[in-house]
């Protein structure tokens, strides 16, 4: 997992040059500011993660739409919304061929425990 994270940091730096500038119909530019981009160093498969600071019961449709746009741009089929509290239910939805999952990194618990829980759930998504 650490290797994947290191690869992601490198890809993230390179990614702005690769994909973040897009032309709109009005010929202005907009940028996708993806929070975390993980890339499997063996397969090249990408995973986009977007961190949220809300404590909602369920993911907001606008957050799902945002993450689907990121996934399309990065040509990946897996995307994850990361929430800070157990109040948000972990769930998933499929939009076309993109699976959007929601996971919790509970900031109210011990950081080591929260990190271990999060990584275990992330591994399940990565291997499915």
Structure notes:
The protein contains three helices and seven strands, in the order H-E-E-E-E-H-E-E-E-H. The chain has 128 residues and is an alpha/beta fold. The chain has one domain (2-127). Strands 3-4-5-7-6 form a five-stranded mixed beta sheet, with helices on both faces. It has a two-stranded antiparallel ribbon with strand order 1-2. The longest helix is centred in the N-terminal third of the chain and has 18 residues, at 2-19. The protein is globular and about 35 Å long. The two termini are 15 Å apart.
Strand content: 25-35%
Secondary structure tally, helices: 3
State the helical fraction: 25-40%
- The sequence of SSEs as H and E is HEEEEHEEEH
In angstroms, what separates the terminal alpha carbons?
A: 15 Å
What is the count of β-strands? 7
SS-derived structural category: alpha/beta
Determine Rg (CA atoms, Å).
15 Å
Tell me, rounded to a whole number, the average pLDDT: 79
| Largest sheet strand order | 3-4-5-7-6
Assign an overall shape: globular
Query: Uncertain segments of ≥5 residues (pLDDT<50)?
Result: 1-27
How many distinct domains? 1
Biggest sheet details: 5 strands, mixed
